[in-house]
Automatic annotation (TrEMBL):
Species classification: Eukaryota, Metazoa, Spiralia, Lophotrochozoa, Platyhelminthes
Keyword Repeat: yes
Name the record gives this protein: MORN repeat-containing protein 3
Gene Ontology CC terms: acrosomal vesicle
InterPro entries: MORN, MORN3
Function in brief: Assembles a suppression complex (suppresome) by tethering SIRT1 and MDM2 to regulate composite modifications of p53/TP53. Confers both deacetylation-mediated functional inactivation, by SIRT1, and ubiquitination-dependent degradation, by MDM2, of p53/TP53, promoting a proliferative and cell survival behaviors. May play a role in the regulation of spermatogenesis.
Secretion signal span: none
Length: 239
């Protein structure tokens, strides 16, 4: 009596492979109608993506880590006219907003934001380049990643978070184009972005959004190319 053999690439194998989500996926719908479009890792939302809550109409577009909102993201809600309105743009950690709330205490401004953040603002400066910057000294801050982190706000409200040397952007940083809904992240040398990657972030809700989305990079391993070049630039800056 011959043994029964399974066909190669049987339907159950194809369905099982589709259920194991990794990499970039088109819109995935939840049972309750919620939807997510973006990157996955080990069946969890990881990377960049957009999540929409079906019942409330709340929209989040930004970074994800291990299934939770972590990194930079934009949160929007529906107003009475049925339009999406931004209510928060900034950092997230473990699904919680890292909000900066500044209060004056003995002449020094301190951060009373969410999470376990506790930064001290040593001063607010208007630089020759026209940027207004907030210089921080980190104690146990969840909002910034290094002790010499500086947040800069341009006259057009664009924002740069990173290192400044000699009144110029130098080193690793993030530049947020609020008008077009885009993020540039990488290495700056004397105010020039030398090795950066550009991504849409909140583009659909931006007041001056670009006509087309930024296309996907087709290199075999773009992260490796980017990492190698950035490491060389950081080594030069440290000399």
């Amino acid at each position: 009596m011959p043994f029964a053999t399974l066909k190669k690439n049987a339907k159950w194998e194809i369905a099982d492979a589709k259920a194991n989500k990794d990499g970039l996926r088109h819109t995935v719908y939840q049972v309750n109608g919620d939807q997510y479009r973006g990157e996955w890792k080990n069946n969890k939302r990881h990377g960049r993506g957009t999540y929409k809550w079906n019942r409330s109409g709340v929209l989040y577009e930004g970074d994800w880590e291990d299934g939770k909102r972590s990194g930079y993201g934009v949160l929007s809600v529906l107003n009475s006219a049925g339009k999406q309105v931004k209510v928060y743009c900034g950092e997230w950690k473990h699904d919680k907003r890292q909000i900066l709330r500044f209060t004056k205490a003995n002449g020094v401004r301190t951060n009373g934001g969410g999470g376990d953040a506790c930064c001290t603002l040593m001063g607010v400066f208007t630089r020759a380049s026209g940027w207004t910057t907030f210089e921080m000294v980190m104690e146990c801050c969840a909002y910034v990643s290094c002790s010499d982190q500086i947040i800069g706000i341009a006259a057009n409200q664009n924002r740069f978070e990173g290192k400044w040397v000699n009144d110029k952007k130098n080193g690793r940083g993030k530049y947020f184009f609020l008008g077009t809904g885009q993020l540039m992240e990488g290495i700056w040398v004397d105010d020039v972005p030398k090795c950066c990657q550009m991504a849409d972030l909140g583009r659909e809700l931006a007041p001056q959004r670009t006509q087309f989305e930024i296309p996907e990079i087709k290199l075999e391993d773009p992260n490796a190319v980017l990492r190698e070049t950035q490491e060389k630039l950081l080594e030069q800056l440290s000399k």
